[in-house]
Specification:
The complex is a heterodimer of chains A (485) and B (441).
Chain A: H1 2-8, H2 10-18, H3 24-46, H4 54-72, H5 74-78, H6 87-98, H7 114-141, H8 147-151, H9 158-163, H10 167-194, H11 203-214, H12 231-244, H13 248-257, H14 260-264, H15 267-289, H16 295-310, H17 325-334, H18 350-368, E1 372-373, E2 377-378, E3 381-382, H19 385-416, H20 422-433, H21 454-468, H22 472-478, H23 480-483
Antiparallel strand pairs in A: 2-3
Helix pairs in contact in A: 1-3, 2-7, 4-6, 4-22, 6-7, 6-21, 7-10, 7-11, 10-11, 10-12, 10-13, 11-12, 12-16, 15-16, 15-17, 16-17, 19-20, 19-21, 20-21
Chain B: E1 2-6, H1 10-19, E2 24-29, H2 32-41, E3 45-48, H3 54-59, E4 67-70, H4 75-88, E5 92-96, H5 100-107, E6 115-117, H6 119-132, E7 136-142, E8 147-153, E9 177-184, E10 187-190, E11 202-207, H7 209-220, E12 228-232, H8 236-247, E13 251-256, H9 259-268, E14 273-276, H10 282-287, E15 295-298, H11 303-315, E16 320-324, H12 330-337, E17 341-343, H13 345-358, E18 362-368, E19 373-379, E20 400-406, E21 409-411, E22 424-430, H14 434-440
Parallel strand pairs in B: 1-2, 1-4, 2-3, 4-5, 5-6, 12-13, 12-15, 13-14, 15-16, 16-17
Antiparallel strand pairs in B: 7-8, 8-11, 9-10, 9-11, 18-19, 19-22, 20-21, 20-22
Classes of the chains: A mainly alpha (485), B alpha/beta (441).
């Protein structure tokens, strides 16, 4: 595992060489990481016979997402980036990269070398690959998120059932799709640059933003994020965000197998669309009525911001922190919606909202009709009560963690002496646990988390990690019975 | 004929009872206790063992038989036995199934057996036929629901309808329907054009489902069709009934006291509302407003439960009660207790199996007026002398062709229509003349 991360350092090293910048931080990082990886292989290799049961895999999965960013932070430390001088900040940036969150502590992104910038974007993209496996293969197996949540849309033609046959096969296909989408995004964005429609979109920018958008990350190489580009580019990014926020299993059906009919009737996809439309509409209304933007710009930025936040990407085309309260509130709530299950997005995710809605309906129904038996279904396939229970627990834990997170930030601000409003704390907590990225106030789309203290960035790092792990595997690790017999 | 019957349960016993006099029968069952009473009562061979194995089938001598009736409750065993027998001999095979999917596969010729019947589906169709035509005394569904045979009591109140007391050829009869017989007292009056229907008669009509409902309105002035049905019992029978009703867009509620079965039904039939409750709980019936606007079907496995629940529902004012009677003797008990429509599913299917044993060309049969009349679903032989003639040129014997299924669509014929070879006809006959009709067609 670490070997491959080590190998990944060679890419920014090449970029560095290309731009005549210092490549050594990446090469050294590569050597260290690969060395650790091979070393670990040596140690564990002897005990290959040791069975990795579900219990061990909780630990392994949780540790991987903590450890990999440590190595990911090496170049920032070795490369001596002034804005990431504090170790905590370097780790924050790396975790934010690998969890595809997109929260940054950099106040001036453009001051960084091309290679450093490229490494940030690449960490999104690599993280995205890990997230797909995590979402499609690992978490369902650990009974988190429920295999059924993903499988629900797999009912129907048998060819797709073979699709789920082996995790390896599924992951391979989805990676192909992921890589394919990235290539398409790179080409489309680069084409905009080549044809002169958008001078800011150099090939380097095209690759960087394609990595970021397909992984639903949110890092940009520009201080002004997506606002640095012309409206056409923004529309294209918008489209890619919407696309990447769809369940990849479904996207595979649509794009590769061309099963349009199955996808059209998909309940999660419909709700995803409904959330997007509703969120965009509310914001556009506020923009127009509050005179924050006019005409096409209002529609474009309103939609872009709604999609960017809900899909947990976190690009910005305008500083929404200056918008009216209706727009800001809508964005805050959209942070809790998230993308679809099986995408690289984070947060609660649309399918859970769908099932929660159905649970509420059933609960109301059974208040009057005591004896009713009413299975909750997703796309016509009944969802096990067990999965539903773990889903409700997840949502509660998510909200609890969010609440504790924002309180902890405020506590730290009180005693650490930094300025933090309640709404900024709420926003930062929601944006990090939802892997969205930018929050409100100083941490807005064009801002950064730099004013936060070390402790606060530590808390936020933890939240990003918890959100990405879907909390339960970590909570399980904390339970006493995990470690007992 | 040499016949092997697989399964000595209710259906097997009914088949044996009907066929033992004329045929040489061997019954196979895994349970000797079910075989013993058959061997005591009838002159049949019995064989204990698993009929889904080649060894047992060979022991039963299937190489030389003419017909296998695989009617055990285990449809997989039935299918395996049928497949093995098809390989070993030239015998015809009949398979009983409870799965609508298999039935459809058979119709698509994907399952190679000569005849397939499902007691669940037959029963569900019988119920559907009855509730579709509330004024009916008896209904039977033919040709996959495209044709209904309905018997009505003609009441005094129907006198103004333009159908009663008028010669049939002048009467305003619903289209796509044919009066095949008028029963007056003890005698049957052939339904010729100059004949009239009088109050107090019973008429037998062959019609499309829509025309059957039109008749129902004419005869009883009853426009109220059942729109809300509660099915008690979520087993295979209950689920099949619910599925058939739901397909006709009737609102269905289901009730079962077993949570597992209720859950399964709720997952299978997502359009139905399923309750986990006891059919004996009057409070539940009141709470869920199962009363006057409702019809109820009792499809539980236990006759006593069906009876009790049925009477309880009647007390709550349920206006139509339909109850399954698994024991043949239960039908009379139900009737005495006031159940509107007792149905014995095994009897229904046994009749079908027996009929096939008589003549494989007959797809279906319905008995009317205590077996005095039969409705046959029969395919005309290519070499039949009657093929090619106009219907009004056929010999007048009291038999009436009520409908013709030709190339998958249904025709309700007139005198000028011509009978063609391989036509599938729905024909009304007197039972005594049934074998004659079978010979000439």
């Amino acid at each position: 595992m670490l070997k491959w991360v080590g190998a990944a350092f060679l890419a920014p090293a090449a970029v560095a060489a290309g731009y005549g910048e210092a490549a050594w931080p990446f090469l050294v990082s590569a050597v260290i990481t690969a060395g650790c990886g091979l070393g670990l292989d040596q140690i564990t290799g002897e005990k290959r016979g040791m069975a990795v049961g579900p219990r061990e895999s909780f630990l392994v999965v949780a540790l991987i997402w903590l450890l990999v960013p440590i190595f990911g932070a090496l170049p920032f430390v070795l490369g001596d980036v002034p804005q990431l001088a504090r170790l905590g900040d370097a780790y924050f940036e790396s975790v934010s990269g690998f969890t595809a969150t997109g929260a940054t502590v950099l106040t001036d992104v453009e001051a960084l070398d091309h290679a450093m910038l490229f490494w940030r974007q690449l960490s999104h993209w690599l993280g995205g690959m890990g997230i797909i496996v995590l979402a499609v293969a690992v978490l369902p197996r650990l009974r988190v998120g429920g295999r059924q949540l993903l499988q629900s849309e797999l009912a129907g033609p048998t060819e797709i059932e073979r699709f789920t046959a082996t995790i390896r096969e599924t992951a391979r296909r989805l990676w192909t799709l992921y890589v394919g989408l990235t290539v398409v995004a790179i080409l489309v964005l680069a084409a905009v640059g080549w044809t002169g429609l958008d001078d800011a979109m150099t090939p380097f920018q095209a690759v960087s933003h394609a990595f970021s958008v397909i992984a639903l990350g949110g890092f940009s190489t520009q201080n002004e994020s997506a606002a640095a580009f012309v409206p056409l580019t923004q529309y294209l990014l918008l489209l890619f965000m919407i696309l990447a926020g769809v369940n990849f299993l479904r996207l595979y059906r649509l794009l590769v197998q061309r099963q349009v009919q199955v996808v059209r009737t998909d309940e999660e996809l419909r709700l995803y669309g409904a959330f997007l439309v509703l969120g965009s509409a509310l914001i556009v209304i506020e923009l127009l009525a509050g005179d924050f933007a006019q005409g096409e710009e209002a529609v474009r930025t309103g939609m872009f911001q709604a999609v960017a936040i809900m899909s947990t990407t976190g690009f910005g085309t305008a500083d929404y922190t200056e918008w009216g309260p209706l727009a800001v509130m809508t964005l805050l709530l959209l942070m809790f919606v998230g993308a679809s299950a099986g995408s690289t997005g984070g947060s609660i995710k649309v399918i859970r909202h769908l099932l929660l809605f159905k649970l509420v309906k059933r609960e109301l129904d059974s208040t009057i009709h005591r004896e009713i038996v009413r299975p909750i279904t997703a796309n016509g396939v009944p969802v096990e009560e067990r999965s539903l229970r773990s889903m409700v627990v997840f949502v509660l834990l998510y909200l609890l963690t969010f609440a504790i997170g924002s309180l902890a930030l405020l506590l730290d601000a009180r005693f650490g002496g930094t300025e933090l409003t309640a709404f900024e704390a709420i926003g930062a907590s929601a944006a990090c646990i939802g892997n969205v990225g930018p929050a409100f106030g100083f941490a807005g789309p064009f801002g950064s988390y730099a004013p936060m203290s070390d402790l606060s960035t530590g808390i936020l790092t933890l939240l990003m990690w918890l959100g990405r792990m879907e909390i339960i595997p970590v909570a399980v690790l904390l339970s006493r019975n995990y470690w007992r017999g | 004929m040499r016949i092997v019957v697989l399964g000595a349960g209710h259906v097997g016993a009914a088949v044996v009872e009907a066929l033992h006099e004329e045929h040489d029968i061997t019954v196979i069952d895994t349970d000797a206790r079910r075989l013993a009473p058959l061997a005591d009562r009838y002159d049949v061979r019995t064989l204990e063992g698993n009929g889904a194995t080649k060894a047992i089938l060979r022991q039963a001598g299937v190489e030389d038989i003419d017909l296998l009736i695989a009617c055990s409750p285990n449809e997989y065993a039935n299918l395996v036995a049928a497949t093995v027998v098809k390989k070993l001999s030239r015998a015809k095979v009949i398979v009983r199934t409870s799965s609508i999917e298999y039935l459809e596969a058979w119709r698509e010729r994907e399952i190679d057996v000569d005849f397939m019947v499902s007691s669940e589906l037959e029963t569900a169709n019988a119920i559907l036929g009855h509730i579709g035509v509330p004024a009916a005394r008896q209904t039977d569904v033919f040709a996959d629901g495209q044709v209904q045979v309905v018997e009505f009591d003609v009441l005094e109140s129907a006198a103004q309808s333009g159908v009663i007391g008028v010669p049939l050829r002048e009467a305003a009869l619903p289209p796509d329907s044919r009066v095949v017989a008028i029963i007056r007292g003890e005698s049957m009056v052939p339904a010729r054009g100059d004949e009239r229907i009088e109050p107090g008669d019973r008429v037998i009509v062959i019609a499309s489902p829509a025309a059957a409902q039109a008749w129902s309105r004419v005869i009883a002035g009853d426009t109220k069709t059942v729109e809300d049905i509660v099915v008690f019992g979520c087993g295979r029978m209950g689920q099949t009934i619910a599925r058939v009703l739901l397909d006709r867009e009737i609102r269905v509620r289901m009730v079962d006291a077993d949570h597992g079965r209720a859950q399964e039904a709720a997952e299978e039939l997502q359009e139905a509302r399923v309750f986990h409750a006891s059919a004996f709980d009057p409070d539940f019936l009141v709470r869920e407003r199962i009363g006057e606007e409702t019809a109820a079907v009792f499809a539980m496995n236990d006759d006593a439960k069906n009876l009790y629940a049925g009477v309880l529902a009647e007390l709550q004012g349920v206006h139509l009660t339909i109850a399954l009677a698994h024991d043949p003797g239960a039908v009379d008990v139900y009737e005495r207790a006031g159940i509107d429509l007792p149905l014995n599913p095994r009897q229904v299917i046994a009749e079908e199996l027996v009929r096939f044993a008589h003549d494989p060309r007959i797809r279906q049969i319905a008995m009317l007026e205590h077996d005095r009349f039969e409705i046959l679903d029969l395919t005309v032989r290519a070499e039949s002398e009657l093929a090619g003639r106009r219907l009004d040129e056929l010999p007048q014997t009291g038999s009436v062709i009520g409908a013709i299924v030709r190339d998958g669509s249904v025709i309700f014929p007139h005198g000028a229509d011509v009978l063609r070879p391989r036509d599938r006809v729905i024909i009304f006959v007197e039972s005594e003349r049934a074998s004659l009709v079978e010979r000439v067609l």
